[in-house]
Amino acid sequence: MINRIIDWCASNRFLVFTGTVVLTVWGIWAMTQTPLDAVPDISDAQVIVSTEWMGRSPDLIEDQITYPIVSALISTPHVKAVRGFTDFGISYVYVIFQDGTDIYWARSRVVEYLQGIRGQLPEGTNPVIGPDATGVGWVFEYALVDETGQHNLAELRGFQDWHLRYWLASVPGVAEVASLGGFVKQYQVNVDPNKLAAYNVGIGDVVKAIKSSNNDVEGRLLEFSGREYMVRGRGYLKSIDDIEGVSLGADPRGTPIRVRDVAQVRLGPDIRRGVAELDGKGEVVGGIIVMRFGENALHVIDQVKAKLRDVQSSMPPGVKIVPTYDRSWLIGESINTLRRTLIEEAVVVSLVIIVFLFHFKSALIPILTLPIAVVASFIPMYYLDVNANIMSLGGLALAIGVLVDASIVMVENAYRHVSEEGVPYDEQPAGIIGAAKQVGRPIFFSLAIIIVSFMPVFLLEAQEGRMFRPLAFTKTFAIAAASVLSITLAPVLMTIFIRGRRLKPESHNPASRLFTRLYDPIIRVAMRWKWTALLINFAVVPLTIPLLFVLGSEFMPPLFEGSQLYTSTDNTPMGMVNTTVTLKPREQWPAGMTLDKLQGDMDAALQFPGLPNVWTQPIRNRLDMLLTGIKTPVGIKVLGADLNEIQRIGEQIERILQTIPGTRSVYAERVAQGYFTDIRIDRDAIARHGLMVGDVEDVIEAAIGGQNVTRTIEGRERYPVNVRYESGFRQGLPDLERVLVKTPMGSHVPLTQLATVTLTPGPAMIRDEGAQLAGYIYLDTVTRDIGGYVDAAKRAVAEKLQLPPGYTLQWTGQYEFQVRARERLKILVPLVFFLIFMLLYMTFHSVSEATIVMLSVVYAMTGGVILQWWLGYNFSVAVWVGYIALYGVAVQTGVVMVVYLHEALDRRLRKGGEITPDDIREATIAGSVLRLRPKLMTVSVVMAGLVPIMWSTGVGSDVMKPIAAPIIGGMVTSTIHVLIITPVIFYIMKLRALRKGSLKVSGMNL
Q1: Pick from 771, 793, 946: nearest CA to 79
Q2: Which residues are CB-neighbours of 65 under 8 A, at least 6 positions away?
Q3: Which candidate in 413, 618, 710, 723 could, as Cys together with 189 as Cys, close a disulfide (CB 3.0–4.6 Å)?
């Protein structure tokens, strides 16, 4: 079939060129339309349910909201985990779905299950699901800065909430614009209880009156003089004067009682649970742009920036917008790094081809097919929704050398055929096509081996699968395109560029002569001392085994994001400080400065007693938090039934892990270290006054806690109206005991006669893991050998901690991913070997010859381990992907060598006559030495294509280097093995076949 394709293409040049142009234009269009981002979205399909119940304590919200929601959603189809987090006034439930779940299907299922439990939730609470975004959707942050001092933080927050937020939310692709910092303006009605008693008014009466005095109504239509007039009753509260004028009734003399008579009304800030600060210059108001799932991150950011430029003229005087986090820099730098690397690889590969072929027009053939194959790979990328990011473009970078292998072998064979066999000029096209058909099937098959050997990468699951599938896709697409071009476009170009009357044979090529002179005596010595050569070769493997025990392990090498996220955590929930540090470009760093050293210097400068530090990066932090709930590389979840016991266990583990080498900081959440003012109502006492528990609790809620009773409507803006006792009447326990409760008989009874007021400890926040209470322990390390660190930490905890019955520990964070990936790779790596071996057996129909080629894989691993150890790379999923890629390339080299050895031996066997051991040796040497050039070319272009990755220092290089290192190191040792040891083993096998009388022509056509 391949031969027929080559013949058809040679006979239809115009159609081939037309198809190539169409393919190239189509690929360029797809390349411009493919979404851009820095990293693949490796987050799980996740739905966040948030429920506000303002003013309520965490234990109350956990019992009445979080637990009912968690217990209901845990049975949702395809749910992998459900986590709950309860804080003061709010509940969050994180529903994580299994791989492959459509995010919108997941959201609809969550809404469906929430509908079934709404009747079980407290009146007035409304669970809502978060935006349709993922962990990498946080793409842009900004701050509103007024250096003129014309606007206070409340005014800036109002502008952000009611104007700027909506302008930006209208940008296509934006899922949410979250506000932070500043003050939310609030109308505060500060009630004087003494005046309430004097006018015989209860605080409930004030709340009811204000609620009833803030409304507009309609009165349908009236007709006057033939016109319709719509009737409106206007009663919105719009100012302090309006609130002060609200009527509370009248005294016995008919004098009206208004809010101003019993309270002071003023503007103030709503309760704040956090602040935003910029560059140490003071507080600011900020916003966070969250991108919708599946959108083009760079496009969304660019549109947001364009929108900000458009609305600049509408900003308040003196206010400017300062970007505080902009992922477009990371996207641009990572894409530029890989674009630059791809260009460097293409140039280096082209130079290698020119040097070895020593015929510029012939070298143009693989050089021209290279960019076409790369561009064509974007077509399936676009239609399969594979973003252009570090990993997907990295797949192209890894494949550059392999893409030209097929064309190189085909061009080299055709050039040799025309230049050395004296083909007349007029017959050269036919001879070239014949030479192309001669090698078409073997080279097409060798590329198929590379594609199949990389298939296990598609079988990686969860985060590692989502990280590396884009790389596997693009590498496979590019190699598939190169395979097709090698049997369609390349033969046609060969008939144009290789023709000539004075083509110089390979013996005139300086590079070929040099390598032949070096190689010929080496292979002859190896053939003469074959058993010694084998012994030395086999000794290499056990010598590299000790290196495996000194190499560390981690889930993924960290990607340099250009920003650092510093988190310090106090023992109280409100003591968490997140600081985003935007770093200067690396070229502006002092000489010798590295990210680890910089992080260490910053950590040393930020040592505060009682505040353990955690260092991470923005994207990595958000992914870790959403995937596991742990924001550090390693974490421990303590699961059990009692928060006090969970806290005790966490504190004990914290003390144990502080002694483990490699620990930068360890912090166990104080899940039970909150402080509460408990008001225990005496039911007998309230009964004597004709009160119910709800009557007393309404006063507690309004007078002490403060209650947002309504909202003003001021044009587009809405602000809460809060009713509460003046601060002087609620500053201590004695003040609280004097809070007055109005009875049905009209008397005002102090709270101390109805309840007991005490201070007690309790949970400041509550975590829920699969309907179990949980406490988190965060571990930040100074080592990248996460696996080794966790093994040591586990041993220390097991030796020094005795867990009570019913309590368990779960080690999580990136370590959890690492363990899962390691177990998966234990299956996939042997699967790679099995697939390769079966393909080789189908090629040679011989177990022994398939084994010969498989040995090149073993020796490829030795070189990969040596270079990995020398460069200091830990074992990670990235490194193992590099090894998987190496196996296919190493096998390709072995296949080419064995095929050429068979070609030389078959040529001798076809001559007939008696075959001697010397004949076999000379044929083996001929197959090794005379066909050295194509073998060196295929190896050289693969290695030359990867070297630019290793010298690259831009964004993304820290992820690609661990992938490329095993391939480069492995190609060195596997090439040495293939060039020297494979011929020796082949010679020994054929000698044995000669003695047994089974030596025969292989039947291979090359």
Answers
A1: 771
A2: 51, 53, 86, 91, 121, 122, 125, 127
A3: 723
pLDDT value, residue 423: 62
Residue of 63, 76, 86 lying closest to 114 (CA atoms): 76
Q: When comparing pLDDT for 932 and 426, which is higher?
A: 932
DSSP 681-698: E-HHHHHHTT--HHHHHH
User: If you search the block for the tokens 């200067």, which residue do you land on?
Assistant: 584
Q: Mapping DSSP to helix (H, G, I), strand (E, B) and coil, where does residue 130 land?
A: coil
Instruction: Kindly report, residue by residue over 467-517, the tens digit of the pLDDT.
Output: 888 888 888 888 888 888 887 887 888 777 776 566 666 666 777 778 888
Fill in the DSSP letter of residue 641: S
Looking at the DSSP bridge assignments, the partners of residue 775 are: 638
Cβ atoms 190, 264 nearer than 8 A: yes
Q: CB burial class (10 A; 0-12, 13-18, 19+) of residue 310? A: exposed
CA distances from 467 to 104, 389, 959 (A): 21, 10, 11
> Alpha-carbon distance 66 to 629, whole Å?
16
Between 793 and 785, the higher pLDDT residue: 793
DSSP annotation of 324 reads E
Backbone phi, psi, residue 10, to 5°: -65, -30
Rounded Cα distance, 670 and 897, in Å: 65
Collect all residues with Cβ–Cβ distance below 8 Å to 302 and sequence separation of at least 6: 328
3-class DSSP state for residue 992?
Answer: helix
The runs of H, that is alpha helices, within 529-658 are 530-548, 595-605, 618-628, 643-657
Instruction: Give the CB-side neighbour count of residue 638, counting CA atoms within 13 A.
Output: 30
Radius of gyration for the alpha carbons in the chain, expressed in angstroms and rounded: 37
Rounded CA gap, 130 and 616, in Å?
25
